[in-house]
Amino acid sequence: MIIEIAKLSPDGSSYIGELPGEILDLDQDKFAHADGPVHCDLFAYLVSHELIVKGTIKAPIKLLCGRCAGFFSTFLVVSSFLRAYPITEGVDKVDLSEDIREDVLLEIPNYPACSWEGSGVCPHSGVNLDEMKIEEMPPENSPWSILDNFDGSSSHKN
Question: Whole-prediction pTM value?
Fold first, then answer.
């Protein structure tokens, strides 16, 4: 998304548009894929010798679920996009694409999980989550097991 400085209103200008999902550069990523265009709703204005841009970015994306190992669709939302660009002599436009890309990528969760909370077959991946549950094994005797029975209520007298 490019903002032309000369076309800015003195009170600022709104920019609503889309960028192709390819700007996220996730083609070779194993865990995340762009799932459509990146939507931008931005407001830009000049303050002194800086262009201030703020707004919201929304990107449809497919993420690999850390629980069922299937891809699911979701939106990454940057609700507080805010950048300041210095405007020097000779600068007539500013390209926001790289900053938009960066902010969207920072919203990818470390451990994504699909919305399926139930048991049985996950509708996103077809994986039977009941088969993936691990039964808890009782702990083996350890030298620390004596502390499991300690309640702390006894007082030590000298």
Answer: 0.72
